[in-house]
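PROTEIN–LIGAND DATA SHEET

This sheet pairs a single protein chain with one bound small molecule, magnesium ion, given as SMILES. Inputs appear in the order they were entered. The predicted three-dimensional arrangement of chain and ligand is reported afterwards as a token string under its own label.
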Amino acid sequence: MNERKAKILALAGKGGVGKTSLASAMVRVLTEEFPGSRVLAIDADPAVGLSTALGVTVTSTLDDIRRAVVASAEDGRPREAIEMLNESRFRIFDAMVETKGFSFLAIGRPENEGCFCSVNAYLKEVVSMLAGDFDFVVIDGEAGVEQIQRRVMEKVSHLILISDQSRKGTHVAETIKDVADELVMYERIGAIINRVTNPELNGFISVKGVDILAFIPADDQQAANDIRGGSIFDLPAGSTVLDGVREALRKIEILS
Ligand SMILES: Nc1ncnc2c1ncn2[C@@H]1O[C@H](COP(=O)(O)OP(=O)(O)OP(=O)(O)O)[C@@H](O)[C@H]1O
Ligand SMILES: [Mg+2]
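PREDICTION REPORTED AS:
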């Protein structure tokens, strides 16, 4: 494995606050600001969405790969985890969609209902494994605190909490921070308040112990683009969401 150490950004927060939209915006901004750098986008939400937001078509998911690797091991002796990961590595690079200057990987949705934890555990190993091959990894997380609790995000270097203006949203962000303080080895943490409709009330908003990196207004262009089924690459360069994300990435010192 090479020495390069990726900045691993993960977005977390309450449902529906804009994690996927802002994750896609981060991927676009990183590819624009650091042309030639290796950017990996990971959709860690089984409900899927980042592929649409980025305009990529998913052919094979991490869950498919996990199954294939497990199945190939079932012929004989159980294999060591490291051996499984080495085989995964091939298959993952094969399955990655490479386009528009970034690579894309989706966790997928396990077919059998119920426990999602094994693919989550696998995701955690895969993130560590791939970190050496990329400059930036952007992970669009599942809503809520569970993936933090299950240590899927353990290796994340930049944890970005997303909320709307609601108390409920900032409360979820605070809960995630508390859990992450125990379970994530993050270097930097910050919050983005998204879909702001009452900017005059921004002074009332706080996320305990976390700097607010940006307040991003509710943006008609973003909403319309979503309705049309457009991707983040269809938004004009100076759009509110892209500017807001650029500001947040500057504050957290990913951009200078
Ligand atoms: N700044 C914004 N202005 C207007 N609409 C926005 C903004 N940010 C996100 N949206 C819209 O809000 C909706 C929810 O956003 P998104 O899917 O990104 O949230 P999420 O946190 O990923 O949701 P989930 O928890 O379901 O995964 C989408 O229709 C999206 O286009
Ligand atoms: Mg989402």
